[in-house]
Specification:
The protein has one domain: Porin, CATH 2.40.160.20. It is built from one helix and nine strands. It has an eight-stranded antiparallel barrel with strand order 1-2-3-5-6-7-8-9. It is elongated, with a radius of gyration of 19 Å. By secondary structure, it is mainly β. About 5% of the residues lie in helices and about 70% in strands.
């Protein structure tokens, strides 16, 4: 239901796009995504961070709005179910897609963009528990709303440097956010 509502909203906005608008541009990019993950469920406690990556494609519909799809691949987050005993280590990771509506804010410079974004994510998850008797791996998926804020600075004719913060509403027991710094190409 969430995905259907977001898709309908994006189609409604896309219907107002004009092809000859000087701000209508494709952008593709990627970056290093530092991720912080905190979870506590079923005796599992993970509080870890690390570097993954994010790649995206965006279509700027108007000077103030765009649509963006992205692929996010998290690092492996580590925790321990038995911190004072051997074994009990836990590893989890996420990878998947996001779809955002981007709202551009007024800027004091033509060479800098500020934006807010909100949308939907669907990630595949993998949780591996390492025990002395053997390993157990569970896979699944999670989805929900995602919000973010960021900025892009022109570094040349078609090149930009982008920094952003994203927060993912994974569940009440899990907290996942990322800070991504990377580059984009505009055409």
């Amino acid at each position: 239901m969430k995905l259907t509502a977001i898709a309908a909203m994006l189609l409604l906005v896309a219907g107002n796009a004009t092809a000859d608008d000087e701000f209508t541009k494709w952008r593709v990019g990627g970056g290093l995504a530092y991720s912080d993950y905190q979870a506590e469920f079923s005796g599992v406690n993970i509080n870890d961070g690390g570097s993954g990556f994010k790649a995206y494609a965006q279509y700027r519909l108007k000077p103030w709005i765009g649509i963006e799809g992205a692929y996010y691949d998290s690092p492996e987050f580590w925790g321990d179910t038995t911190p004072h005993q051997q074994g009990g280590e836990v590893e989890t990771s996420y990878d998947g897609l996001t779809l955002h509506l981007i709202g551009y804010l007024p800027s004091f410079s033509e060479r800098m963009d500020f934006f807010l974004k909100g949308g939907y994510f669907k990630f595949d998850t993998e949780l591996t528990q390492f025990e002395t008797a053997g390993n157990t791996t569970n896979t699944g998926s999670t989805d929900g709303f995602a919000i973010g804020i960021g900025s892009a600075i022109d570094a040349g004719d078609n090149i930009g440097i982008r920094a952003e913060f994203d927060w993912y509403d994974t569940s009440g027991e899990v907290d996942l956010w990322t800070i991504t710094i990377g580059a984009e190409y505009r055409f």
